[in-house]
Every structure is written in C-alpha cells, then in structure tokens.
Amino acid sequence: MEMQEPFDIQIENISYAVFPEGNDTYVIFKEGKEYTHIQKDTDLQWLKLDPETALPLFEVDEEINNIGKAILAYQPEEEEDEEE
User: Is residue 2 predicted with pLDDT exceeding 60?
Assistant: First the structure.
C-alpha cells in the first residue's frame, strides 16, 4: 500500500490539513498549525494520541471523531495530465 498524499478537509468553517503517517495514524493541522495526532480505532471511533507518549487517549472526542469521518469520506481526485 502506497503512502497517501496529505489532503485538506473542511468541517463546518474550520480547515484541517491531514497528513497520513500509515497504520491508520494521521497528523492533523488545524488552521495551519499542528494540532494533534489521531489514530483510527473503528470506522466510528477515532483516538487522539498523547503528544508526549504517542499512546492513544481513550476519551470520546466529538471533534476527533468528526475529523475521522471526514478522512474516511475523503476521495482523492484522480490526477489528470493536461500537459501535452
């Protein structure tokens, strides 16, 4: 499986940049600043990773779950070569 390219998602009026790190782990930037690391637990449950230890924090976080849903819903655009 190849590494995914970073991509942007929008939730309400907040912009997030998503940087896939593999193993269902993502670095999330919020409004241009590094915000958090998250990891997929299940399709509906996502975990925020502790910034110190990188271990999952088992607390329900609506924002983290919404980011996760947006990541799952994201479809990369097919690259079209228009340079001929």
Answer: no
Three-state DSSP at 70 gives helix
46-49 and 33-40 as β-strands: parallel, antiparallel, unpaired?
antiparallel
Query: Which H, E and C letters describe the chain, residue by residue?
Result: CCCCCCEEEEECCEEEEEEEEECCEEEEEECCEEEEEEEECCCCCEEEECCCCCCEECCCCHHHHHHHHHHHHCCCCCCCCCCC
Segment (H or E) for 67: helix 62-73
Under the banding of pLDDT at 50, 70 and 90, the label for residue 1 is very low
pLDDT at 45: 92
Of residues 60 and 40, more confidently modeled: 40
| Domain locations in the chain as residue ranges | 7-73
Coil, strand or helix at 62: helix
Tell me the whole-structure pTM to 2 decimals. 0.82
